[in-house]
Amino acid sequence: MAAMLSVNEVAALADAPRSVVEKALEQRIFSATRSGTRAERMLPIRSVALAATFRSLGRRLTIADKLQMSRHVETVRLDAMRECRIEIAPALTVDVGALASDAVDRALRYAEARDAYIERVDGVMGGRPVLKGTRITASSVLGRIEAGDTIDDLLDDYPDVPREAFEAAYLYAATHPSVGRPARERGAA
């Protein structure tokens, strides 16, 4: 089965605002399935191609145009996305490959790394997502990078963990924020 991505992952990988993905869901351009205990909406990787294309076009497409593009993209193999061109009207052809193939490649690499390196295990770090075989949480990777560390710094600290694992953990944590109350600042009453 092809990898599925959350709404936030699709938006981040397409370099598009979340509102573009939400609007496509609302208009039934994208179809989502529910997954996991929180019933998170999951979308196919092809959604990244469409979201990147919608963002890149810089013009408003009609719902009919978007649906036509969606139906066409569903028939294209992901490895052939670079060659995908869709005729919207006699004088308008959209080169999805030129607009979105890099985003699709990024999404495929991310989904493979996410599935290979990130897991949730009851009893390990409270069931929070960790890098497989470690106690390194995805959120700690995000925190370190946001604090100024680089992936290379993390590789120096954990030489047995592959770069792809840290890159996947960073994007995963950024697109799956922790649920709950924010921590109180020290010294706050």
UniProtKB/TrEMBL annotation:
Pfam families: DUF433 (PF04255). InterPro entries: DUF433 (IPR007367), Homeodomain-like_sf (IPR009057), WH-like_DNA-bd_sf (IPR036388). Signal peptide: none annotated. It comes from the Bacteria. This is DUF433 domain-containing protein.
